[in-house]
Amino acid sequence: MDHICIWNVWSRDQEKARVLNYHNAAVKDVQWSLQGLFLLSCGYDCSSRLIDVETGLETQVFKEDQVVGVIKFHPNNSNLIRVGKVVNEYFRGLGPILDIEFTIDAKQFISSSDVSKGNIYMEAYTCPCIRSHQRDSYFVAQSNGNYIAIFSSRPPFKLNKYKRSTDLIKKIKAYEQACIDVGFHPTMSNVVASCSWSGDVSVFE
C-alpha cells in the first residue's frame, strides 16, 4: 500500500480518520512525533516524508537514492528534522537496515542489518526488531532464530543473556496470518495495537 491510514483508537465503526497519499510506492515505516502532531513516514519510493496530522499536509520531503526501510524521530527533540539537512551519514556496507533505536540518553543509536556477521555479536540469524529499555542501560534484539538477546547499551555493548522462553502471561489469537508489529499506546499502557500480513489492524485493551 502506498497510503497511510490514521484511525481513531476507540472508533467502533472502523472508519478511517484520515488517509494520506503522498508516497508513490509502498510505505515501509511510520512514526508519530512525541507530541502527536506530525507523522514521519518512509518507503519504497526512496523518500521520507513529514506530514502535519491536523491539516493532512506534507511539510517536508527527504529524497534518498535507495529504499528507506525504517525511520525514527529523535526521542528528546522531534523538531530536529525541520532543519532538513543531513547532519551525519553512517556507512557499514552490511545490507539493508532492519531497525534503528536510540539509547535511553539519546546520545547514541543502535541499528540492526540484514547481514548478521557484521553485527556486534556473531549469530546465524538477523534481528528485525530492537528496543531500548525505558529506564536501564539495556536493549533487546528479537532474533529470527526465535529468541531475544539482551545487551548492555554502554560500551563495549556486551551480550547479557539469551531469553528463549519465560512465563507466558497471556496469549491472544488475533490473526490467521503472521503478526508483523505490536505497539503500546503512548499514554495508556493497557492499550496495545497490532497488525498482520493480511492488512488487519487490531486494538486490545
From TrEMBL:
Protein name per its UniProtKB record: Transducin/WD40 repeat-like superfamily protein
Ranges in coiled-coil conformation: none
Signal peptide: none
Gene3D superfamilies: YVTN repeat-like/Quinoprotein amine dehydrogenase (2.130.10.10)
